[in-house]
From TrEMBL, chain A:
CDD domains linked to this entry: PBP2_NrtA_CpmA_like
Entry-linked SUPFAM superfamilies: Periplasmic binding protein-like II
Protein name, entry field: Nitrate ABC transporter substrate-binding protein
Pfam families per record: NMT1_2
Organism: Pseudomonas neustonica
Gene3D superfamilies: Periplasmic binding protein-like II (3.40.190.10)
Protein localization: Endomembrane system
Keywords, alphabetical: Cell inner membrane, Cell membrane, Membrane, Signal, Transport
InterPro entries named among the record's database cross-references: NrtA/CpmA_ABC-bd_dom
UniProtKB/TrEMBL annotation, chain B:
InterPro entries in the cross-refs: ANTAR, CheY-like_superfamily, Sig_transdc_resp-reg_antiterm, Sig_transdc_resp-reg_receiver, WH-like_DNA-bd_sf
ANTAR domain boundaries: 123-184
Keyword Lipid metabolism: no
PTM sites of type 4-aspartylphosphate: D53
Family matches, as SUPFAM superfamilies: CheY-like
Superkingdom, natural source: Bacteria
Response regulatory domain mapped to chain residues: 3-117
Swiss-Prot/TrEMBL keywords: Phosphoprotein
Protein name, per record: ANTAR domain-containing protein
Length: 405, 192
């Protein structure tokens, strides 16, 4: 608690000194997701005023609409998917535009869900799904939220780890997260991977069940980020730093106590924000899961927004991982200069300045090591070898594949 | 093509400016005199730029422009023969984006109006920024005041008061400043 007060004495220096924000009013894009909590709290609970910023929240209907808003300047910064920031940077699906990842907003808390009809037909486990997918009578149709997005990557990774080729053995669709439950209801999809509360909401609505959490794919995986165009950061560096500080403050506040988490859940469930019942939103935000087929548990790696800064550091290895998966699934035809791209996109220096000013600890390495669900270790040291190391893939270039073998 | 609402407040040049505008390829909506209900006319005509042609813009003109800029901001260009710097200053302060003295060839009109529009946009941006800064400051003051009152009422420290206010705001899906106003209002009602 006390720590929260320490930067206050310095904040006037940020406003009046040479570090004063160049731009004071920001339009901040977000999607109706539990993951948006720190942005909503920062904008509405007075976390940005001490840094001289007014944050106007702008809810978006889809990730593609959010991307367009960032590119045409209607949005100054936005909640983003790692895969969205890097796909714009690399020009997959739009003209390449240099992008900036300012900080991580959250880890964990996404889920893969299947329809009630699937459950009733006996598909209630990974094994049953594998059998169903291999039975080629009808291809399963699974939705994610953006062609290069994190949900596509979690879904692909999970399927591939179970021996199902995500591009050959199943059909995939793009559906905005808040419309997933309606698509299940209409029978247009057999399942989906998206952020909460939409998995929990599918269960509450009797439309589906949760097959796997994203943290079971990669414990403490990077999820949403705060992103902007590189141009924005170059034009308004002090504003960008002040924005990071506001949201870091809010992230820390959310995790200060159970009470703060609960009132955050109440706030964001409102019609102007996530617009979902508190009963769908709150339990998983607190780590309490039910899967819709009689299992319940307290998750060891629940959704988190701060984790003493571990969540917020824009690790190079986090950015690199998404590029390795783009390469793995053929979205990138060649290996990019992984480190050069990640160093350009991840705003490590800006983040460090903001974290230092708030007394938030920084890791010594820009790379972090994780073990994913298939036992593979990702530590960021050799992205090219990692991208080419998977049994199931869609790397088109045969020379590249041979090289990896 | 730009839509221009032309307001004529002059006798001698009648038709001249309009002709020049038409030659330059603008769409011109004609109005004479400043006796019209300017806001209503603008709302129905939806012009990109308002152009006032006036021999000598008097107080009535300035007053209309001033009120109008506040409620329904639009780029306004003023064409006049008046060279008095005082009137010029007053016009700019009232919200005129371009003040053009004496006649203009049609070839220059487009450039003048383009500049007026850019100038208007940047003025609007500055005004919005200023407004936001003022609001930021006043919100901070209200929050600080409410926090002080709450600290006294609850005998708690600053950080605890801040957290209590935020929790209250969040559980009611309100902004922090709304809860601050409620605390101040309640305190005023109950007195010391």
């Amino acid at each position: 608690m006390k720590q929260n007060d320490s930067p206050r004495g310095d904040t006037l220096a940020w406003i009046n000194g040479s570090d004063a924000p160049e731009k004071h009013i920001l339009n901040l894009g977000f999607m109706p997701l539990t993951d948006s909590a720190s942005l909503i709290v920062a904008a509405t609970q007075g976390f940005s005023q001490p840094y001289g910023l007014t944050l106007n929240l702008r809810r978006q209907q889809s990730w593609s609409a959010l991307r367009d808003g960032l590119l045409n300047g209607e949005l100054d910064a936005a909640q983003g998917l790692y895969g969205l920031a890097y796909s714009i940077q690399l020009g997959l699906g739009s003209a390449p535009t240099p992008m900036a990842v300012l900080m991580g907003l959250n880890q964990n808390g996404q889920s893969i869900n299947l329809s009630q009809a699937m459950l009733e037909s006996g598909v209630n486990s990974s094994q049953a799904l594998i059998a169903q997918a291999k039975h080629k009578s009808r291809k399963l149709c699974l939705a994610h939220t953006f062609p290069t997005g994190t949900h596509a990557m979690w879904l692909y990774y999970w399927l591939a780890a179970h021996g199902i080729h995500p591009l050959k053995d199943v059909d995939t669709r793009v559906v905005p997260p808040s419309l997933m439950v309606e698509h299940l209801r209409a029978g247009r999809i057999d399942g989906f991977c998206a952020g909460e509360p939409w998995g929990a909401h599918a269960i509450q609505s009797g439309m589906g069940f949760t097959l796997a959490t994203s943290q079971s794919v990669w414990p403490d995986h990077p999820e949403k980020v705060l992103c902007a165009t590189q141009r924005f950061v170059e034009q308004y560096p002090n504003t960008a730093r002040a924005l990071i500080m506001s949201i870091l403050d809010a992230s820390r506040f959310i995790e200060e106590s159970e009470d703060n988490r609960c009132s955050t859940a109440q706030l964001i469930s409102g019609a102007d924000y996530v617009n979902a019942p508190l009963t769908s939103l709150q339990p998983r935000m607190l780590g309490n899961y039910v899967d819709g087929c009689d299992h319940d548990w307290h998750d060891a790696h629940p959704l988190r927004f701060h984790g003493n800064g571990e969540v917020n550091m824009p690790y190079l290895s986090d950015g690199l991982w998404f590029m390795t998966q783009f390469r793995r699934w053929g979205l990138l035809r060649e290996d990019p200069d992984y480190f050069a791209v990640a160093k350009q996109v991840q705003q490590v220096d800006l983040y460090k300045q903001a974290a230092n000013a708030l007394g938030i600890s920084l890791p010594t390495s820009m790379l972090r090591s994780s073990t994913l669900m298939d036992g593979k270790i990702w530590d960021g040291t050799n992205p090219t070898a990692y991208a080419h190391s998977f049994d199931l893939h869609a790397i088109a270039d045969p020379r590249a594949t041979r090289q990896a073998n | 093509m730009l839509r221009i609402l032309l307001i004529n407040d002059t006798v001698k040049k009648v038709g001249k400016l309009k002709q020049a505008l038409l030659e330059a390829g603008f769409e011109v909506i004609d109005e004479s005199g400043l006796t019209i209900d300017l806001p209503a006319r603008v709302q129905s005509a939806k012009p990109d730029v308002i152009l006032i042609d006036s021999d000598s813009p008097g107080r009535d003109v300035m007053e209309q422009v001033c009120l109008f800029s506040r409620d329904l901001p639009h780029p306004i260009a003023l064409f006049t023969d008046e060279q008095d710097p005082g009137i010029m200053r007053q016009a700019i302060q009232s919200g005129v984006s371009a003040y053009i003295v004496e006649g203009v060839e049609s070839s220059r009109l487009k450039a003048i109006l383009d500049v007026a529009m850019v100038r208007f946009e940047s003025d609007q941006k500055l005004r919005a920024e200023l407004h936001a800064r003022e609001q930021q400051l006043s919100e901070r003051k209200r929050v600080e005041k409410a926090k002080g009152l709450l600290m006294k009422m609850k005998s708690c420290d600053e950080s605890e008061a801040h957290t209590l206010m935020r929790r209250q705001a969040m559980s009611r899906q309100q902004k922090l400043v709304q809860v601050a106003e409620q605390i101040i209002a309640m305190h005023e009602m109950l007195g010391e």
